[in-house]
Write a structure and sequence with these properties.
The protein is of the alpha/beta class. Helix content is 37%, strand content 15%. The protein has two domains: 224 residues, Rossmann fold, CATH 3.40.50; 61 residues, Winged helix-like DNA-binding domain superfamily/Winged helix DNA-binding domain (Arc Repressor Mutant, subunit A, Orthogonal Bundle).
């Protein structure tokens, strides 16, 4: 573990302490089923509205492009609908959920496993400063407390306690995200999971929750609203996917893409197209938002999946 650094001494973080009975304390924090609720929390930044509707988004630190896309879509939709987005400020899915909420002009709460004066993880420093400015940072630990490994499973129960539902985007069957999902079940919260390809090891956790009927499978933020806010309809003004018209090469490549990255060489072999034609087709699909390059390989976007489904069913 990389040791955390202190946030700037020129702008020190001096958290306020909240406890049961204080103005900011959500009653939900005391409703954790068999798990011990916190007795006090250290809070910096924007005040917590104990009556605000809140949903957590959690997942792996090593997400796929599809996982990041799902976290961004869900965080944006929840924030635009007035929900507070809660997560753990970890790399990967957590960070994407926080960013999406901030970019949508919403409120986000980061629950961390160390003192609020520490910058951890270091790679999220810029995001942490944005949350310090317009969001809220919450910890069970006083200033100076290091991010010890056993703090993070305990931190997860606070994420659950601040929310009325938890969304698991990606994570293995032994991941912290799955721990959070099962804590939510213990606490009688709604649990949602984003299904993924069987070839994606980080989809195994959400898929297992769905298989065991411990979580509701979702592929759109509207599915969350259907459970938590019946009657609410959310429309993503930026979702389009462009025209459903594709040429033969685009159709072949779309049929081979998935939410697990595949290489251009794989696409050349399986599509029986020339390498140059495949690379040109991938560029066209990227421009239209139907495919995404990720670590040198290519994945299908949500818009691409919708278009492929329409083409397969004969509607495109």
């Amino acid at each position: 573990m990389i040791a955390p650094s202190k946030l700037s001494d020129h702008n020190p973080i001096n958290p306020r302490v909240i406890a049961p009975g204080t103005r900011e304390w959500p009653l939900r924090l005391g409703e954790l089923g068999p798990h011990q609720p916190p007795t006090r929390l250290y809070v910096s930044g924007r005040e917590i509205d104990p009556d605000a509707r809140s949903v957590a988004i959690v997942g792996t630190r090593r997400p796929t492009a599809a996982g990041i896309e799902a976290a961004l879509m869900l965080g944006k939709g929840l924030a635009e609908a007035g929900f507070t987005v809660v997560s753990g400020l970890a790399l990967g899915i957590d960070a994407a959920a926080h960013r999406a909420a901030l970019e949508a002009g919403g409120h986000t709460i980061a629950v961390i496993g160390c003192g609020t004066d520490l910058n951890y993880p270091r790679r999220n420093e810029r995001l942490r400063r944005r949350i310090d400015s317009v969001g809220t940072v919450v910890s069970e630990y006083p200033n100076g407390t290091a991010p010890l490994p056993h703090h993070f499973p305990l931190r997860n129960r606070i994420i659950v306690g601040l929310t009325e539902g938890v969304i698991v985007v990606e994570g293995s069957v032994k991941s912290g995200a799955l721990i959070t999902g099962r804590l939510a079940l213990d606490a009688n919260r709604s649990v949602f999971a984003v299904p993924g390809s069987f070839r994606n090891p980080y989809a195994s956790g959400p898929n297992e929750l769905i298989r065991c009927m411990e979580a509701t499978a979702i592929t759109d933020v509207q599915h969350v609203f259907d459970d938590l806010a019946p009657g609410m309809v959310w429309v993503d003004s930026q979702s389009s996917g462009g025209s459903a018209r594709v040429d033969e090469a685009e159709a072949r490549v779309l049929a081979l893409l998935d939410d697990v990255a595949v290489t251009a060489d794989f696409l050349v072999t399986e599509s029986h197209l020339e390498q140059g034609e495949v690379l040109l087709t991938l560029s066209k699909l990227e421009i239209r938002g139907l495919a995404k390059r990720w670590n040198g390989a290519y994945e299908l976007t949500s818009a691409g999946a919708r278009l492929r489904s329409a083409l397969t069913s004969g509607r495109g």
